[in-house]
Amino acid sequence: MSKIGFLDSGIGGLTVLEEFCQSNNSKTAVNELSEIIYLADLKNLPYGEKTLERLTAILEENLKWFAQQNALMVVLACNTSSALLNEKIKQNFKQLYIFDLITALAEQIDREHKNLDKIAVFSTLATHQSGAYISNLQKVLPQAQIISIACPAFVPLIENHLTESDFSLEQINKLALGCLQEYTQNLPFEPSAIVFGCTHYPLLKMAFAQRFKNSLFLDPAQALAQQLQKYKFSDQTKFLSFSTAQAETFEAKLKALAKILNCVQYFSNQAQIAKTA
Ligand code: DGL
Questions:
Q1: 198-215: per-residue pLDDT in tens?
Q2: Which of 14, 63, 147, 160 would you label with 255, given CA atoms 20 to 30 Å apart?
Q3: Residues 198, 154: contact at Cβ < 8 Å?
Q4: Catalytic choice (21, 151, 198, 263)
Q5: On the CB side of 147, how many CA atoms lie within 13 Å of its CA?
Q6: Pocket of ligand 1 (CB under 6 A)
Q7: 37 and 141: one domain?
Q8: pTM of the model
Q9: d(CA 119, CA 261)
């Protein structure tokens, strides 16, 4: 029996938890999870606009908190945090097994998509600036053309609209499509594959599908769910939600998402405040 943590700046990581839940429910689990802890770091949202130094300090604070909760594993359900994970951080948190989205996707591409030739990675500004996607994907696809596109408007667009009572995913996607058209005006090629390089973006799939009608969509969350295959949750597993600030706002966002993401319905608690450093 073990605890697993999921970390994001806000609600984006729930798209990763959703993939995990969809592929890993089991009544007869071998490695059964006792607790799934979701942490939304609303105090520091959005990550995408912060410096890589500041984000590294934030990541370490949050990992420390998960270690204090006696988590055995932590899923960086956030590409911006995944982009920052390095050997030094892993050494500092030896007691945690840390999973990240970027190496999970690179490994999946290496196994299953060796013939991809033109890839566009969409992400936050910080992930884009880190260069982590380009370097990890280039290692497994040395011949491919890979571009990275920062989409600074998307995370605020999603997080802000979710707190409105009459929120609609269609409306959010309509607004996102306008931004996406601007971001992709001068692409050097039409991509054969699109990477959702931010965990909020699967919620914008309608907009992406309208702009890129013939592309393959790669969600790193699916690759990561494969890595977690041997860990299962059951009726006995507790799902707990925490936020580093504004627990009520987070609770309202969870409510809004309950219609869209099944995993939200498993949370048994009111979102609690996590006292990170
Ligand atoms: N959802 C996160 C990611 O995958 C971070 C979004 C943000 O706070 O900017 O990068």
A1: 999 999 999 999 999 999
A2: 63
A3: yes
A4: 198
A5: 14
A6: 8-10, 12, 45-48, 78-80, 124, 127, 155, 198-200
A7: no
A8: 0.96
A9: 27
